[in-house]
């Protein structure tokens, strides 16, 4: 993996990340494909929407279908038939948010699966092994994600463990057998053409460290310093979107981002609304992921250039216009608001497909506009215009 | 509407139905788009699969979104952005299968909606009015669909009412204002290009009569004679798939089909398995519809050239092969059985999309093969080969 910082417009950064599965233009939004599927989208539909990178969840995939099976099937790219880049989280966040009976020791975390109650274990070494065998392009260090509301002392203790686990994650990667990344070269890859796993020299994933420290600015500064000093390929701000207020999240981000290495990509984990993305870019963030576009799609909440709408609203019942007149997605090009409302109210599965296509496209399109604005040194004006639209209050 | 009978191979018929929304090659299978959507498929996905005609359910659409709204939005073609042909049922079958508190009088049927309990009314005149305003290409006469297990006398009485209603359906169409069919010419039709409804001279839908008579061969013969004598554009065999045995259904079909007019298309309503379709074609049926491919897709039951499979079966967990090696659909071209099993077991919405794409494609592909076989005078051999595959037991 290689990161090129192409230009800056204020603190906003325009860049490129080169991976074994293509180039990623930054700032980038990564759609979430939790279980190796971006929810309602087939892989062909996803390719038409056109993200350069998606996110897979290690926690979900280690439980189902399990890493041994994923490994045997040639990694997540081959499993999904996805030629673009993949970033995996480390499993840490979801152990804290989904699993039960967590037992945290220095060695790692023992927990019970939310699916069947089975006993599971994650540690820096196990997480890196799983992510490597998944064959992802970018892996994340295994961290502890402290709950919102903990004391300074509790968060500090957790943060120090995250730092020790970060070192162990780096060590684990250096000594791990490589995954499937290079056995599946990008372009022209098909199920029939790709050989059995392991037949060619494999690449290790790039590895990003994660800054923790909760809402405490001294801890964030300390964590940024420690994680930045390690030999990671990129640095993430973790431990946000865990229940803190919007103001607290923005404070953490604005405080932390400038402390991160200029020459490495910066990733704000699990964020957020369109407004959050613009705020993040303004603070110098390069990468984002969030379930918001896909989850909202399933709830009938749709993002448009005129703000968020609830498609079930009766005012759309006879609305023959497209969902968003400024959007070029398949949904906006082919069907009306009236039809989308009808499908959603009727509970048709196609409603979820149409909605997901649009919301994911909207997020990607927003980031395309952001990159264009940075390239033209007009990001500040672009952001002002976007945020001043009365309905884009952002949450 | 115009029907061309191109050739026969035994009793199997090859034909073409010309409509305002394109040509339909027969024998044809019509995917069911109950609520103006073929379940998990976007309209673009449906077009890629390529049916020439789909079926809409009058009962469902009159309840939601309602005929006034459909009319205002320019008819079902415009609502769905569908350029192909549409056949609507009359609502009769679903009043009998879904609605509660039915009160049948000579005038029509009063019933309560299964959605909100609201009082509704359907009669030949109301049904034809709704179907015309939907702007469908082929409408069905309003019939009574007697329950399985009724006596000869009860079925005879119901059948005579269906005959009287058939005459009234024809009369209602002749005197009805035309629908949206011709205001939406086929080809190049987009939301922006199509003018407001009613701006151009409109076409009335073609109208098919329905033969009833339950499992009583004398009544079926009588009904076939009466319905065939009326000025319908096609004739359907109704009152099957209501609980009778497979043998009884086949007996009704084989007994009735030869009694129908040679020069009109023959439609077997609500049938059936791939085997049923081949049996129907062998008996001289031209048109079929069934929820089986779409409903089975949602249950994870998939049709393949090697028989039906339950994709959740553990034997597919590590199966890297395509769902059906002989199938050219998007699902079979892009993902493995292992991935499809994973998505289905995990409950991903994309599983329903992949499965629906395949099952609908499978049915359409089967009918393409059937038409090719008839064209080559080899339908008998084709059917023998298909039915002799050990796993194609058909139900």
Percent in strands of chain A: 15-25%
Q: Give the largest interface.
A: A-B, 46 and 46 residues
Largest β-sheet summary of chain A: 6 strands, parallel
- Helix share, percent of chain A: 25-40%
- The total beta strand count of chain A reads 16
* Major beta sheet, strand line-up of chain A: 4-14-13-12-11-10
Keywords for this structure?
homodimer; 395 residues; six-stranded parallel β-sheet; three-stranded antiparallel β-sheet; 15 helices
Note down, in words, how this protein is organized.
2 copies of one chain form a homodimer. Chain A has 15 helices and 16 strands. In chain A, the strands form 5 sheets. A 6-stranded parallel β-sheet of chain A has the order 4-14-13-12-11-10. In chain A, helix 7 runs parallel beside helix 8 and helix 11 runs antiparallel to helix 14. The radius of gyration of chain A is 21 Å and the shape is globular. About 5% of the residues of chain A have low confidence. At the A-B interface, helix 1, helix 12, helix 13 and helix 14 of A face helix 1, helix 12, helix 13 and helix 14 of B.
What's the structural blueprint in terms of helices and strands?
The structure is a homodimer of 395-residue chains.
Chain A: E1 2-9, E2 12-19, E3 22-26, E4 28-31, H1 43-49, E5 53-56, H2 58-63, H3 67-72, H4 76-80, E6 85-88, H5 92-97, E7 100-104, E8 109-112, E9 119-122, H6 124-134, E10 138-140, H7 152-175, E11 206-211, H8 217-229, E12 234-237, H9 246-256, E13 266-268, H10 274-282, E14 287-290, H11 292-298, E15 301-302, E16 309-310, H12 330-334, H13 337-346, H14 349-375, H15 379-388
């Amino acid at each position: 993996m290689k990161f090129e910082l192409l230009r800056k417009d204020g603190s906003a950064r325009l860049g490129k990340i080169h991976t074994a599965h293509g180039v990623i233009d930054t700032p980038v939004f990564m759609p979430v494909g939790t279980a190796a599927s971006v929810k309602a989208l087939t892989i062909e539909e996803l390719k038409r929407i056109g993200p350069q990178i998606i996110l897979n969840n290690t926690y979900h995939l280690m439980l189902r279908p399990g890493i041994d099976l994923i490994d045997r099937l040639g990694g997540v790219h081959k499993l999904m038939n996805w030629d673009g880049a993949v970033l995996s989280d480390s499993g840490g966040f979801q152990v804290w948010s989904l699993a039960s009976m967590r037992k945290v020791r220095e060695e790692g975390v023992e927990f019970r699966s939310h699916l069947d109650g089975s006993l599971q274990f994650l540690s820096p070494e196990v997480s890196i092994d799983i992510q490597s065998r998944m064959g992802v392009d970018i892996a994340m260090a295994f961290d502890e994600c402290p709950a919102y509301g903990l004391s300074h002392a509790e968060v500090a203790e957790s943060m120090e463990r995250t730092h020790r686990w970060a070192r162990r994650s780096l060590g684990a990667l250096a000594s791990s057998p490589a995954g499937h990344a290079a056995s599946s070269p990008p372009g022209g890859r098909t199920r029939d053409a790709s050989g059995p796993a392991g037949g060619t020299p494999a690449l290790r994933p790039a590895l990003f460290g994660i800054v923790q420290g909760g809402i405490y600015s001294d801890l964030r500064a300390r964590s940024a310093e420690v994680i930045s000093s390690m030999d990671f390929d990129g640095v993430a701000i973790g431990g946000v979107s865990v229940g803190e207020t919007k103001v607290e999240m923005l404070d953490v981000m604005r405080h932390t981002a400038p402390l991160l290495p200029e020459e490495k990509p910066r990733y704000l984990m699990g964020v957020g609304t369109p407004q959050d993305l613009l705020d993040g870019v303004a603070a110098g963030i390069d990468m984002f992921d969030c379930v918001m576009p896909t989850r909202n799609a399933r709830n009938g909440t749709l993002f448009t250039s005129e703000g968020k709408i609830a498609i079930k609203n009766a005012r759309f019942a006879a609305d023959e216009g497209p969902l968003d007149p400024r959007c070029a997605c398949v949904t906006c090009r082919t069907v009306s608001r009236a039809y989308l409302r009808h499908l959603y109210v009727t509970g048709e599965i196609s409603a979820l497909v149409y909605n997901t296509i649009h919301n994911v496209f909207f997020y990607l399109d927003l980031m395309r506009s952001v990159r264009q604005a940075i390239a033209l040194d007009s990001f500040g004006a672009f952001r002002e215009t976007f945020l001043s639209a009365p309905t884009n209050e952002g949450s």
